[in-house]
Amino acid sequence: MDLLFYDGIDWEREFAPFRTHCEECRGLCCTLLYFAKCEGFPADKSSGVPCHHQKPDGRCGIFQELASRRLYGCLAYDCFGAGQRLAARTEVITNWEAVPQPRRELLFRAFLDLAQICQSQWYLTLASLLRPARGLLPQINALRERGQKAETLSAEELACFDIIPYRKDVSHLLGQVWEQVEPLLCKPARRQPILKSYAGKKMRGKDLAGKNFSTADLSRADLRGANLYGANFLGADLRETDLRGVDLSHGLFLTQFQVNSALGDADTKLPPYLLRPPFASAGAWGPPFPVKKQPRF
Ligand code: SF4
Ligand code: SF4
User: Fold this and answer.
1) Can you tell me which atom of ligand 2 is nearest the CA of 28?
2) Minimal CA–CA distance to 49: which of 114, 104, 126?
3) 94, 143 Cβ separation under 8 angstroms
4) Whose CA is nearest to atom 8 of ligand 1?
Protein backbone atom coordinates (compact mmCIF):
# COMPACT_ATOMS: atom_id res chain seq x y z
CA MET A 1 0.00 0.00 0.00
CA ASP A 2 1.29 3.44 -0.91
CA LEU A 3 1.81 5.55 2.20
CA LEU A 4 0.89 8.83 0.49
CA PHE A 5 -1.53 8.32 -2.39
CA TYR A 6 -4.73 6.31 -2.51
CA ASP A 7 -4.66 3.23 -4.71
CA GLY A 8 -6.21 3.22 -8.17
CA ILE A 9 -6.18 6.97 -8.81
CA ASP A 10 -7.00 7.99 -12.38
CA TRP A 11 -4.37 10.73 -12.44
CA GLU A 12 -5.13 11.96 -15.92
CA ARG A 13 -8.81 12.36 -15.19
CA GLU A 14 -8.12 14.20 -11.93
CA PHE A 15 -5.72 16.71 -13.43
CA ALA A 16 -7.11 17.00 -16.98
CA PRO A 17 -9.12 20.18 -16.16
CA PHE A 18 -5.90 22.01 -15.31
CA ARG A 19 -3.80 21.06 -18.33
CA THR A 20 -3.25 23.93 -20.74
CA HIS A 21 -4.88 23.74 -24.15
CA CYS A 22 -3.11 26.51 -25.99
CA GLU A 23 -4.90 25.63 -29.23
CA GLU A 24 -8.19 26.71 -27.59
CA CYS A 25 -6.76 29.98 -26.30
CA ARG A 26 -5.79 33.00 -28.33
CA GLY A 27 -2.40 33.35 -26.72
CA LEU A 28 -3.84 35.32 -23.82
CA CYS A 29 -0.70 34.90 -21.70
CA CYS A 30 1.43 36.20 -24.57
CA THR A 31 -0.64 39.41 -24.67
CA LEU A 32 -1.97 39.97 -21.18
CA LEU A 33 1.15 39.26 -19.11
CA TYR A 34 4.21 41.45 -18.82
CA PHE A 35 7.55 39.72 -19.21
CA ALA A 36 11.25 40.32 -19.61
CA LYS A 37 13.89 39.14 -22.03
CA CYS A 38 16.23 38.17 -19.18
CA GLU A 39 13.57 35.69 -18.00
CA GLY A 40 13.59 33.71 -21.23
CA PHE A 41 11.00 35.69 -23.18
CA PRO A 42 11.60 37.30 -26.56
CA ALA A 43 11.56 40.91 -25.33
CA ASP A 44 10.67 43.18 -22.43
CA LYS A 45 7.01 44.08 -22.69
CA SER A 46 4.11 45.48 -20.67
CA SER A 47 0.85 43.73 -19.88
CA GLY A 48 -1.92 44.05 -22.46
CA VAL A 49 0.52 44.36 -25.35
CA PRO A 50 0.79 41.43 -27.77
CA CYS A 51 4.18 39.76 -28.12
CA HIS A 52 5.65 40.74 -31.48
CA HIS A 53 5.71 37.06 -32.47
CA GLN A 54 1.95 36.62 -32.11
CA LYS A 55 -0.04 36.08 -35.27
CA PRO A 56 -3.38 37.93 -35.76
CA ASP A 57 -5.25 34.90 -34.37
CA GLY A 58 -3.13 35.18 -31.19
CA ARG A 59 -1.08 32.06 -31.83
CA CYS A 60 2.68 32.01 -31.60
CA GLY A 61 4.36 32.54 -34.96
CA ILE A 62 7.58 30.84 -33.85
CA PHE A 63 6.18 28.02 -31.75
CA GLN A 64 8.37 25.37 -33.38
CA GLU A 65 11.46 27.49 -32.76
CA LEU A 66 10.97 28.30 -29.08
CA ALA A 67 13.53 25.71 -27.96
CA SER A 68 16.12 26.52 -30.64
CA ARG A 69 15.77 30.22 -29.77
CA ARG A 70 16.17 29.30 -26.09
CA LEU A 71 12.91 31.02 -25.12
CA TYR A 72 12.54 28.96 -21.96
CA GLY A 73 10.26 31.47 -20.29
CA CYS A 74 7.71 30.80 -23.04
CA LEU A 75 8.25 27.06 -22.87
CA ALA A 76 8.01 26.78 -19.09
CA TYR A 77 4.95 28.96 -18.55
CA ASP A 78 1.81 27.13 -17.48
CA CYS A 79 -1.55 28.78 -16.74
CA PHE A 80 -3.28 25.73 -15.18
CA GLY A 81 -5.92 25.95 -17.92
CA ALA A 82 -6.92 29.54 -17.15
CA GLY A 83 -6.20 30.70 -20.72
CA GLN A 84 -8.64 28.42 -22.49
CA ARG A 85 -11.28 29.08 -19.83
CA LEU A 86 -11.06 32.85 -20.20
CA ALA A 87 -10.86 32.66 -24.00
CA ALA A 88 -14.11 30.69 -24.04
CA ARG A 89 -16.00 33.50 -22.32
CA THR A 90 -14.51 36.64 -23.83
CA GLU A 91 -14.70 38.31 -27.21
CA VAL A 92 -12.29 37.33 -29.99
CA ILE A 93 -9.73 40.11 -30.25
CA THR A 94 -7.66 40.32 -33.41
CA ASN A 95 -6.55 43.92 -33.03
CA TRP A 96 -5.39 44.69 -29.51
CA GLU A 97 -4.47 48.24 -30.45
CA ALA A 98 -8.17 48.96 -30.86
CA VAL A 99 -8.99 47.65 -27.38
CA PRO A 100 -9.36 50.48 -24.86
CA GLN A 101 -6.85 50.44 -22.00
CA PRO A 102 -9.49 49.83 -19.27
CA ARG A 103 -10.67 46.72 -21.11
CA ARG A 104 -7.09 45.42 -21.37
CA GLU A 105 -6.58 45.99 -17.66
CA LEU A 106 -9.82 44.20 -16.83
CA LEU A 107 -8.79 41.18 -18.90
CA PHE A 108 -5.35 41.19 -17.29
CA ARG A 109 -6.87 41.14 -13.78
CA ALA A 110 -9.41 38.49 -14.79
CA PHE A 111 -6.64 36.29 -16.21
CA LEU A 112 -4.46 36.61 -13.11
CA ASP A 113 -7.37 35.80 -10.78
CA LEU A 114 -8.48 32.85 -12.86
CA ALA A 115 -4.93 31.48 -13.05
CA GLN A 116 -4.66 31.67 -9.25
CA ILE A 117 -8.03 29.97 -8.80
CA CYS A 118 -6.97 27.17 -11.15
CA GLN A 119 -3.61 26.85 -9.38
CA SER A 120 -5.42 26.55 -6.06
CA GLN A 121 -7.68 23.89 -7.53
CA TRP A 122 -4.60 22.00 -8.68
CA TYR A 123 -3.21 21.92 -5.16
CA LEU A 124 -6.55 21.02 -3.62
CA THR A 125 -6.98 18.18 -6.10
CA LEU A 126 -3.65 16.73 -5.01
CA ALA A 127 -4.55 17.24 -1.34
CA SER A 128 -7.77 15.29 -1.88
CA LEU A 129 -5.75 12.32 -3.14
CA LEU A 130 -3.46 12.12 -0.12
CA ARG A 131 -4.23 9.26 2.19
CA PRO A 132 -2.88 11.00 5.34
CA ALA A 133 -5.24 13.97 4.72
CA ARG A 134 -8.44 11.91 4.62
CA GLY A 135 -9.67 13.55 7.84
CA LEU A 136 -9.60 16.93 6.07
CA LEU A 137 -11.51 15.80 3.00
CA PRO A 138 -14.74 17.69 3.88
CA GLN A 139 -12.82 20.97 4.15
CA ILE A 140 -10.83 20.23 0.98
CA ASN A 141 -14.00 19.48 -0.97
CA ALA A 142 -15.74 22.59 0.36
CA LEU A 143 -12.89 24.76 -0.89
CA ARG A 144 -12.83 22.95 -4.22
CA GLU A 145 -16.52 23.72 -4.64
CA ARG A 146 -15.88 27.38 -3.83
CA GLY A 147 -13.12 27.41 -6.48
CA GLN A 148 -15.35 25.68 -9.03
CA LYS A 149 -17.98 28.39 -8.61
CA ALA A 150 -15.36 31.12 -9.00
CA GLU A 151 -13.99 29.43 -12.13
CA THR A 152 -17.30 30.02 -13.89
CA LEU A 153 -17.41 33.78 -13.31
CA SER A 154 -17.41 36.14 -16.27
CA ALA A 155 -14.31 38.22 -17.04
CA GLU A 156 -16.01 41.24 -15.49
CA GLU A 157 -16.86 39.33 -12.32
CA LEU A 158 -13.41 37.77 -12.14
CA ALA A 159 -11.74 41.17 -12.35
CA CYS A 160 -13.68 42.18 -9.21
CA PHE A 161 -13.24 38.85 -7.45
CA ASP A 162 -11.47 39.15 -4.12
CA ILE A 163 -8.87 36.44 -4.54
CA ILE A 164 -7.03 37.14 -1.27
CA PRO A 165 -9.45 35.49 1.22
CA TYR A 166 -9.81 32.50 -1.06
CA ARG A 167 -6.05 32.02 -1.39
CA LYS A 168 -5.62 32.55 2.33
CA ASP A 169 -8.12 29.79 3.09
CA VAL A 170 -6.47 27.45 0.57
CA SER A 171 -3.03 28.19 1.95
CA HIS A 172 -4.20 27.59 5.53
CA LEU A 173 -5.81 24.29 4.59
CA LEU A 174 -2.73 23.11 2.67
CA GLY A 175 -0.72 23.84 5.81
CA GLN A 176 -3.08 21.60 7.76
CA VAL A 177 -2.73 18.90 5.10
CA TRP A 178 1.04 19.06 5.44
CA GLU A 179 0.73 18.69 9.21
CA GLN A 180 -0.92 15.32 8.57
CA VAL A 181 1.74 14.20 6.10
CA GLU A 182 4.98 15.38 7.68
CA PRO A 183 4.95 13.26 10.89
CA LEU A 184 4.66 10.11 8.77
CA LEU A 185 7.85 10.91 6.91
CA CYS A 186 10.05 12.96 9.13
CA LYS A 187 10.73 12.48 12.84
CA PRO A 188 10.40 15.68 14.93
CA ALA A 189 14.13 15.70 15.66
CA ARG A 190 14.89 15.85 11.93
CA ARG A 191 12.46 18.64 11.21
CA GLN A 192 14.33 21.86 10.77
CA PRO A 193 12.90 25.30 10.32
CA ILE A 194 12.33 26.03 6.66
CA LEU A 195 15.50 27.53 5.29
CA LYS A 196 14.08 29.79 2.61
CA SER A 197 17.13 29.87 0.41
CA TYR A 198 18.86 26.79 -0.89
CA ALA A 199 19.86 28.60 -4.07
CA GLY A 200 22.81 26.86 -5.65
CA LYS A 201 23.15 24.49 -2.69
CA LYS A 202 24.68 21.06 -3.27
CA MET A 203 22.33 18.50 -1.77
CA ARG A 204 23.41 15.57 -3.88
CA GLY A 205 22.62 12.18 -2.36
CA LYS A 206 21.03 13.63 0.81
CA ASP A 207 18.10 12.07 2.58
CA LEU A 208 15.43 14.76 2.21
CA ALA A 209 12.38 12.56 2.61
CA GLY A 210 9.50 14.56 4.04
CA LYS A 211 11.47 17.78 3.81
CA ASN A 212 9.38 20.93 3.78
CA PHE A 213 10.65 23.04 0.89
CA SER A 214 7.44 25.06 0.60
CA THR A 215 8.14 28.56 -0.81
CA ALA A 216 11.90 27.90 -0.55
CA ASP A 217 14.36 29.10 -3.16
CA LEU A 218 15.87 25.96 -4.70
CA SER A 219 17.01 27.65 -7.89
CA ARG A 220 20.20 26.10 -9.30
CA ALA A 221 20.36 23.67 -6.33
CA ASP A 222 21.73 20.22 -7.05
CA LEU A 223 19.27 17.53 -5.92
CA ARG A 224 20.75 14.64 -7.89
CA GLY A 225 20.59 11.36 -6.02
CA ALA A 226 18.65 12.90 -3.12
CA ASN A 227 15.80 11.01 -1.48
CA LEU A 228 12.80 13.31 -2.03
CA TYR A 229 10.03 10.94 -1.02
CA GLY A 230 7.14 13.07 0.18
CA ALA A 231 9.13 16.32 0.03
CA ASN A 232 6.86 19.36 -0.07
CA PHE A 233 7.58 21.70 -3.01
CA LEU A 234 4.58 23.99 -2.61
CA GLY A 235 5.51 27.30 -4.25
CA ALA A 236 9.25 26.51 -4.25
CA ASP A 237 11.45 28.12 -6.86
CA LEU A 238 12.90 25.34 -9.01
CA ARG A 239 14.41 27.40 -11.78
CA GLU A 240 17.44 25.54 -13.11
CA THR A 241 17.32 23.11 -10.18
CA ASP A 242 19.22 20.00 -11.14
CA LEU A 243 16.74 17.13 -11.13
CA ARG A 244 18.64 14.85 -13.47
CA GLY A 245 18.04 11.25 -12.47
CA VAL A 246 15.98 12.35 -9.47
CA ASP A 247 13.01 10.29 -8.29
CA LEU A 248 10.16 12.77 -7.79
CA SER A 249 7.44 10.17 -8.08
CA HIS A 250 6.29 10.98 -4.53
CA GLY A 251 7.14 14.68 -4.56
CA LEU A 252 4.24 16.76 -3.26
CA PHE A 253 2.60 19.95 -4.56
CA LEU A 254 4.79 20.21 -7.62
CA THR A 255 3.49 22.03 -10.69
CA GLN A 256 4.18 21.72 -14.38
CA PHE A 257 5.77 25.15 -14.34
CA GLN A 258 8.28 24.14 -11.66
CA VAL A 259 9.32 21.01 -13.49
CA ASN A 260 9.45 22.78 -16.87
CA SER A 261 11.81 25.38 -15.48
CA ALA A 262 14.19 22.87 -13.85
CA LEU A 263 16.76 20.57 -15.46
CA GLY A 264 15.80 16.97 -16.00
CA ASP A 265 16.73 13.97 -18.06
CA ALA A 266 15.33 10.67 -19.25
CA ASP A 267 16.03 9.16 -15.81
CA THR A 268 14.08 11.84 -13.90
CA LYS A 269 10.95 10.23 -12.47
CA LEU A 270 8.07 12.68 -12.31
CA PRO A 271 5.03 12.39 -10.05
CA PRO A 272 2.03 10.81 -11.77
CA TYR A 273 0.17 14.14 -11.84
CA LEU A 274 2.81 15.84 -14.03
CA LEU A 275 3.77 15.44 -17.66
CA ARG A 276 7.27 15.33 -19.08
CA PRO A 277 7.90 18.82 -20.55
CA PRO A 278 6.74 18.79 -24.17
CA PHE A 279 9.97 20.44 -25.25
CA ALA A 280 12.18 17.71 -23.73
CA SER A 281 14.62 16.35 -26.27
CA ALA A 282 15.58 12.67 -25.92
CA GLY A 283 13.96 12.90 -22.49
CA ALA A 284 16.17 15.77 -21.31
CA TRP A 285 15.25 19.38 -20.74
CA GLY A 286 16.64 22.43 -19.04
CA PRO A 287 16.89 26.15 -19.52
CA PRO A 288 20.32 27.70 -19.73
CA PHE A 289 19.16 30.86 -17.97
CA PRO A 290 16.51 31.84 -15.41
CA VAL A 291 12.87 31.88 -16.39
CA LYS A 292 10.07 33.96 -14.93
CA LYS A 293 9.28 33.25 -11.32
CA GLN A 294 6.16 31.28 -10.57
CA PRO A 295 3.73 33.37 -8.55
CA ARG A 296 4.33 32.67 -4.86
CA PHE A 297 1.60 30.76 -3.12
S1 SF4 B 1 7.42 33.99 -28.49
FE2 SF4 B 1 5.53 32.92 -28.83
S3 SF4 B 1 5.07 31.81 -26.90
FE4 SF4 B 1 6.62 33.38 -26.47
S5 SF4 B 1 5.44 35.16 -25.76
FE6 SF4 B 1 5.79 35.40 -27.96
S7 SF4 B 1 3.98 34.53 -28.93
FE8 SF4 B 1 4.04 33.80 -26.81
S1 SF4 C 1 -2.84 31.41 -21.51
FE2 SF4 C 1 -2.50 29.23 -21.07
S3 SF4 C 1 -3.69 28.15 -22.64
FE4 SF4 C 1 -3.40 30.26 -23.34
S5 SF4 C 1 -1.55 30.24 -24.62
FE6 SF4 C 1 -0.93 30.78 -22.52
S7 SF4 C 1 -0.37 28.84 -21.54
FE8 SF4 C 1 -1.57 28.35 -23.38
Assistant:
1) 1
2) 104
3) no
4) 30
In this structure, the residue with its CA closest to atom 1 of ligand 2 is 83
Distance CA 45, CA 296 (A): 21
Is the CB of residue 239 less than 8 Å from the CB of residue 287? yes
**Other beta carbons within 10 Å of 225:** 13
User: CA-based diameter of the chain, in Å?
Assistant: 61
Please state, as a whole number, how many other Cβ atoms lie within 10 Å of the Cβ of residue 167. Answer: 16
Query: Which atom of ligand 2 is closest in space to residue 111's alpha carbon?
Result: 1
Question: Partners of 264 in the beta sheet?
Answer: 285
The pLDDT profile of the chain, 297 residues, written as one tens digit per residue, is 899 999 999 999 999 999 999 999 999 999 999 999 998 999 999 999 999 999 989 999 999 899 889 898 999 999 999 999 999 999 888 889 899 999 999 999 999 999 999 999 999 999 999 999 999 999 999 999 999 999 999 999 999 899 999 999 999 999 999 999 999 987 776 666 666 789 999 999 999 999 999 999 999 999 999 999 999 999 999 999 999 999 999 999 999 999 999 999 999 999 999 999 988 888 899 866 555 565 555
